[in-house]
Design a protein that fits this description.
With about 240 residues, the protein is of the alpha/beta class. It contains six helices and eight strands, in the order ααββββαβααβββα. The protein has a single domain, classed as 3-Layer(aba) Sandwich (Rossmann fold), CATH 3.40.50. It has an eight-stranded mixed sheet, with helices on both faces.
Length: about 240
Amino acid sequence: MKRDFLFALYQTPRGKLLQRMEAQYLKRSITIGCRQKQLQIGGLGWEAEFIDCSLYQNYVILDGKGMGCDCALKVNAKAYSLPIKSESMDLVIIPHLLEFDAHRFQTMREVNRVLKPSGELIILNFNPFSLSVRFQFLWDLKFADSWRAHFLRRARILDWLKLMNFDVLATVEFGLDTFRIRHGSFKFNRFSLFTMAYGIKAVKRQYSLIPLTPVKQGEKNMAPVGMAMEAHEHQEFS
């Protein structure tokens, strides 16, 4: 499975550090209530580090191999064809899945479909410019079947979100030993070249169209000045 690359990376010293930082970030980013519905696309196996699934009865993990917290509800399905009702989820988390998804844009459309208006989306991806990620990828190719990596640039994800009417709330960069959160839209800086991964938190916006109806013009109750004066003079002489 292509996503095995992710779990192999988490076993490296840098990967273990990345895992801890991502868990801290997810823990502080999940701000919804226990009664709301949450969907995680792609199991990690260490969900307990950022969420107590026993308290969230509506926490669903969609994973083809059944990975994830044992207390969560598991769904075995394809990410690009979610068996979930439209506009039923308050939060969707996509941790390192889009890089290994051949139907990644269709998956994003499905996420947009199942999210409620004002629902939140959290995406974690590898930094395509990270040397450590690239080295680990080339190392894994020696022991596994060849496959193409589709490490996605942050600007591309932001373009997809913009097309689907998402507003970016914050972006995060996972560096060598800490992570940095930037609120608002992403601005490129030279430190982005040295980050191992990045995250994006966005909210779904739904704009209602207000139909424009033609205004019916009533009868005119006012007459031009000239016509009013002529009518007054006619009444005086008659």
